[in-house]
Design brief:
The complex is a heterodimer of chains A (223) and B (217).
Chain A (H helix, E strand, L loop, with lengths): L1 H67 L2 H19 L13 H4 L7 H31 L6 H35 L11 H22 L5
Helix pairs in contact in A: 1-5, 1-6, 2-4
Chain B lengths: L1 H45 L5 H36 L6 H51 L6 H9 L19 H17 L22
Helix pairs in contact in B: 1-3, 2-3, 3-4
Classes of the chains: A mainly alpha (223), B mainly alpha (217).
Amino acid sequence: MLMGVIGAIGSIGSAIASSSAQASAMRKQEDANAQWAAYQKRARDEANVREEQLRQQAEAARQNTLGELTPDKQKAAQDTEQQRLQKDITPVNLQGQQPVVGDELLAGLKGAAPEVQQDLTARINSASQDARKRIANLATIQSYGDSQFGLQNRAQDLFNQSGQTIRLAGDERQGNLAALGVAEQVEPAKITTTPSPFGGIASSLASLAGKGLTSGGVQSPFG
Amino acid sequence: MGGKSGSSNNQMLMFEMQQAAEAKQKEAERQARLEQGKGAIDQLFNSAGFDQAFYDKYKNAELSNAEDQLQTQFDKQATQNRYSLARAGLSRSSAANQVKADLSSQKDFQDIGFRTKADQDVAALRSGIQGQQQAAYNQLFATEDPGVAAESAAGAIKSSAAAQPTLQPLGELFKPLVIGSISAGQNLLDQYTANNPSIGSGSRRAPAVSYTGDNAA
């Protein structure tokens, strides 16, 4: 009988101990989950901040290029390039307002009548006017296209510059996202409750208590 | 204990829901930026900024460059023809008229070609501007999505570069007539007519003229 009572008390105690261990495990799991959530949030926040910084770098480069491609700026660039080309491709003897009538052209005409010399000068003037007109036309045409700073080359350069920044930022953003992906693979610690030794003891004590109480019941107290 | 477990699960669920909400919000912001960016690009390239005057300036320069050369060559050829006709004694003849008409016809033919080419080159210039717009779109997409290759932006504009008109001096645009042979034929015909007054001047036909054929435009 006494053994049965002791067994019952021990069984109850063991059960309480086992329950306490499970509650502790649950708390630890919650703590682990909270730590994991905090870690994930921190990793995500950091990645988001970095992502936004890089996106803004790319956006700034893009906006800068777009700002240089407005019709007004492109027209101004075309005008500037046209003037540069006009100056650059004009032969030296046409750079002055009055064409230089070279001595070689007047060779043999020194003694010619003034009318003849004037006629030659007029013809050379006409030729130089034609040349200037052609130079102006060529400068205009080229400034729209493939000259050094022509519209097409200018736009290409601008897109190349911003493209490099966007590509660099894009590469870093992909790396940033990949690092976040690795962080997201981290799982919360899993607290597993191993079978409590108190559980076995409680079971044994309960069995003992059962036997003790059963045998006590059969035996007469009166002998 | 069941309550404890529910609390833990709820915590995880809330975290995942928060993540989903953040992702949704970020995507909404991204789409708004795309819309805004596209609108800004459209406004830039579809506005009146690249107006007809912008394209006409290019076309007129190209036309002027070609037509000045055409006119110069026409004038020289007309002078040459006049001298040749005079040497052949055909300054006032139907043959001279034919030569002049032929020269004028060749000039018109060349002029039409220049105008057609200038129109095509303006179309290419427009295409180049559209290429800029496409490149701007590509950079917008690449900025909002790092997965998009930015190389495409550079490629798009390069492929749409404006066609360049011929800038080298044009070659011989006119096919000169061999007026010397006309002269020989004309002299024989004149002699024949003089010897046979019954034929009369009414039967005189303009002699055939031929092209040299070697220096085609």
